Amino acid sequence: MKIVCIIRYEIDPFQRDAFETYAETWGKVIPRCGGDLIGYFLPWQGTNYVGWGLIGFDDLAAYETYQQRLRQDGEGKRNFAFAQDKRFILKEERNFVEVVDGTFNLPALET
User: Fold this and answer.
1) Pick from 15, 37, 20, 19: which is nearest to 28 by CA?
2) Which strand (E) or helix (H) includes residue 64?
3) Does residue 11 belong to any structural domain of this protein?
4) Residue 52: inside a domain
5) Sequential pLDDT tens for the chain (111 residues)
6) Is 45 domain-assigned?
7) What is the CA radius of gyration of the chain?
């Protein structure tokens, strides 16, 4: 994995459970379509309206292939429709970052 797509969601805090269902569905769909799912994250402390999704790819070409597969995936289409119907996502933004070698997924040292 060389790049990570970081998706920041502004969600309706009164529909946190709907966002959780949405995220759980991506847990099946994203890997099937070629994304390396790092995880989805719900608000916990601090703001109650920001959620995150992190997905890794080897390069932007792999991301574009993933996007094509995602648009054709039946369960993915239903999940997009679920979000539009329930309107729990108020705003969504995507950023792509490059992984710095030697810094990703390092376990804590035993003390």
Assistant:
1) 37
2) helix 60-72
3) yes
4) yes
5) 799 999 999 999 999 999 999 999 999 999 999 999 999 999 999 999 999 999 999 999 999 999 999 999 999 999 999 999 999 999 999 999 999 989 888 889 987
6) yes
7) 15
- Segment (H or E) for 94: strand 89-98
For helices 16-33 and 74-86, the axis angle rounded to 10 degrees is 160
How far is Cα 65 from Cα 38, in angstroms, rounded to an integer?
Answer: 18
Closest CA to 83 of 32, 24, 19: 19
Q: Both tokens of residue 88?
A: 């729990």
Helix (H) / strand (E) containing 33: helix 16-33
Structure tokens that stand for 67 in this block: 């996007």
- The model's pTM is 0.91
User: Domain residues for 16?
Assistant: 3-98
Q: How many domains does the chain have?
A: 1
Give bridge partners of residue 9 from the DSSP assignment: 51, 92
Is 109 inside any structural domain? no
